[in-house]
Amino acid sequence: MTDARIDVPAAAHELEGKGAVEILGWASQNLGPKLTFATGFGAEGCVIIDLIAKANLPIDLFTLDTGVLFPETYALWRALETKYGVTIRAVRPEQTIEQQAQAHGPTLWERDPDRCCDLRKVKPLRTALAGFDAWITAIRREQTAERATAKVVEHDKKFGLIKVNPLVAWSHDDVWAHIYANDVPFNELHDRGYPSIGCQPCTSAVALGEDARSGRWRGSSKKECGLHVIQEVNR
Ligand code: SF4
Predict the structure, then answer these.
(1) In which band, very low, low, confident or very high, does the pLDDT at 217 lie, cut at 50, 70 and 90?
(2) Higher-confidence residue: 1 or 190?
(3) CB atoms < 10 A from the CB of 209, how many?
(4) Annotated catalytic residue 225
(5) Is 1 helix (H, G, I), strand (E, B) or coil?
(6) Using one digit for the tens of pLDDT, what is the confidence trace for 28-71?
(7) Which ligand 1 atom minimizes the distance to the CA of 109?
(8) Which residue's CA is minimally distant from atom 8 of ligand 1?
(9) How far, in Å, is the centroid of ligand 1 from the Cα of 116?
(10) Which of 11-15, 155-159, 231-235 is predicted with the least confidence, judged by mean pLDDT?
(11) Sheet of 134-136, strands arranged across
């Protein structure tokens, strides 16, 4: 349910061109405890955690722990918590990997990745967001044609939430310049050919010249985690 007190178009107009910290501060002040940030630990997500923590903003943080993330991703999760003194809550599916294997057979991701993503990502995300009025995303306008028209603040019709996009005007180079200048922890797999990192069974390295997301569900026609929601969460 969105917050009726917020005039979303007016807020988007007012915040256009402002810095990410100012946008996050506005969101924290106006959306308060009903605001959350769901991170998948992409580079942009790490920047947002850095900004939230340094500004000491009381914003809820969570991640979808599918149970089959890379060891490097789990290590990054702990590194961010330690460096910034924050808690990034784990939102988990109803079933463990073992329970899912008993119910649906082993390695469901190989046979029916859409079903697996629905069980391990989409449903848990919907449940996790049900208690919030607004969420922060890590999207940037230059990422896709669909995102090119994204506003700093907008309605998220899929979830009935207000969506706040503090990095919407940032470039890829802006993100990495911030990471290096501020010593922000990032997933070491990025330096080993993984520009886009999801669950371990469904992510492979990409070769030079390949599309950044070509390592996701390689060999399958699948490109998104259902409803196109997880891409927004992650990267
Ligand atoms: S990315 Fe793969 S392992 Fe992860 S939830 Fe989707 S299908 Fe399952």
Answers:
(1) confident
(2) 190
(3) 6
(4) yes
(5) coil
(6) 999 999 999 999 999 999 999 999 999 999 999 999 999 999 99
(7) 7
(8) 116
(9) 5
(10) 231-235
(11) 89-91, 60-64, 35-38, 134-136, 161-164, 153-156
Rounded to the nearest integer, the mean pLDDT of the chain is: 92
Ligand 1 atom nearest to CA at 200: 3
Contacts (Cβ under 8 Å, ≥6 apart) of 162: 2, 3, 6, 8, 31, 133, 134, 135, 153, 154, 155, 156
Joined together, the tokens standing for residue 164 give: 């706040």
Q: Which residues line ligand 1 (CB under 6 A)?
A: 66, 68, 109, 113, 116-117, 120-121, 198-199, 201-202, 225
pTM: 0.92
Burial class of 105 by CB neighbour count within 10 A (0 to 12, 13 to 18, 19+): exposed
For the chain, domains (ranges, CATH) are: 8-193+223-234 (3.40.50.620)
